[in-house]
Amino acid sequence: MFTINRRDFGSDFTFGVATAAYQIEGGQLDGRGSSIWDTFSATPGNVKNGDTGADACNHYELWPQDLDLIRDGGFDAYRFSIAWPRLLPEGTGAVNQAGIDFYDRLIDGMLERGLKPYATLYHWDLPSALQDRGGWMNRDIANWFGDYATLVGEKFGDRLAATATINEPWCVAFLSHFLGIHAPGYRDLRAAARAMHHVLFAHGTAIDALRATGTKNLGIVLNLEKSEPASDSEADKSACNFGDALFNRWYLGGVLKGQYPAELTEWLAPYLPENYEADMAVVSRPLDWLGINYYTRGLYKASNDPRRPVEQVAGDLEKTDIGWEIYPKGLSDLLVRVATEYTKIPLYVTENGMAEVEGEDDPRRVRYYDDHLKAVLAAREAGADVRGYFAWSLLDNYEWAEGYNKRFGLVHVDYQTQERTPKASYRSFQGMLHNTR
Ligand code: FCB
Predict the structure, then answer these.
(1) How far is the CA of 355 from the centre of ligand 1 (A)?
(2) What interhelical angle do 328-341 and 363-381 show, nearest 10?
């Protein structure tokens, strides 16, 4: 059980759980178009065990029981993502009515259960037809994404409590176009530089599009890490500074100040889109809130690897089942940093959680959540305006390049039978949220 108490957060603090479409829905059923994760995962060698999201948790059919779990856990909100290729199978043009109907049912299902819908427009499942046209490397993606945002705003906007454009632009751009670990699996500096800018230009374009439909409470979700040098050496400190620019400041600075870090615009100068500066007003459109996904710290040392500008090393803190260090203080530090250096808009922890070995008894996860929730309280006391917290994730699910082997759920999923079984961590949230309502 948790040691923290819901009352410590005040009555309007929002507690929720988060998921993403490709990781749970399953299926190119009912007209959903192909996405880059369908083809990336079908390509041998990209994903552990050759796992794909073809079935995942079959949330597409089992969503009523999943929403019941969220309600019964005592949560206020559900952060879910909309699959672009389910609404627009080719990415642009013809609308798939079955897709609209699915999200209609899902959103109404949340409202019927008293859950606030927090939607994310893009959690990595780009329609393959748009990848064929260059995907995030092509500037036109801003218009494609803007049109998709208009559709979402028109169909669902009035029922959404909050809407985010992009989940984790660093992953969309750098992880997927420079490190080659996520779809589309590029390893190319020009591709990465273009994606780094276009993903934020598309974000700003979508903010304008959503606002034009009257959709309220708009934001973006950034994955941030606490960057620290592996030693006190000047070389490691400067690697840390570069890593921080690449991971954190490109996105914080771009979105909240209309400015990219100078060391990166210098490094990427030959590859960035021409005249990108003219887009910065769109990149930095005013937002209503900022979402932060936090998992761990980044520990940097000067790189000996010519393929990487900086190198990350494993630290000596306790690690989760995916090898990430457990570091709650990093969450407080980050929230305070964002509130002090970047913005006064409300902050939400839109993802936080840990991978643990399979099982329903997960005491380390209970402690992880308790400690990170304390870190949120500490940040609030230090002046950060944090309004909500979403656990990643409701269910064990498809963990991208790691496949089904890494389990982040509050609820265990048996992938043979699709049976859901709440874990001790789910019960801990339930205890805290119900006892103090
Ligand atoms: C985040 C992703 C989410 C999930 C967690 C573990 O980077 O947004 O989909 O995979 O990591």
Answers:
(1) 11
(2) 30
Residue among 349, 322, 338, 343 nearest 248 (CA): 338
Separation between Cα atoms, residue 39 and residue 47, nearest integer Å: 11
Contact 59, 83 (CB under 8 A): no
Measured distance CA(419)–CA(437) in Å, rounded: 29
Identify the pLDDT of residue 309. Answer: 76
pLDDT at res. 437 = 45
Inter-CA distances, 269 with 175, 243, 264, 275, 306, Å: 19, 17, 8, 11, 19
Q: Is 293 annotated as a binding residue?
A: no
pLDDT exceeds cutoff 90 at 138? yes
Cα(205)–Cα(200) distance, rounded to whole angstroms?
Answer: 9
Ligand 1 near 400 CB (within 6 A): yes
pLDDT in tens, 70-80: 999 999 999 99
The per-residue pLDDT for range 380-395, each reduced to its tens digit, is: 999 999 999 999 999 9
CA count, 13 A, side-chain hemisphere, 100: 13
Exactly one of 25, 225, 351, 356 is catalytic; name it: 351
Q: Taking the C-alpha atoms of 402, 404, 405 and 407 in order, what is their torsion angle to the nearest 10 degrees? A: 100
259-306 tens-digit pLDDT: 999 999 999 999 999 999 999 999 999 999 999 999 999 999 998 877
Q: At 298, which amino acid appears?
A: G
Under 8 Å between Cβ of 124 and 183: yes
Distance of CA 18 to the CA centre of its chain: 9
Q: Which CATH architecture has domain 6-434?
A: Alpha-Beta Barrel (3.20)
- In the residue annotation, 168 being an active-site residue is answered as yes
Per-residue pLDDT band for 146 (boundaries 50, 70, 90) equals very high
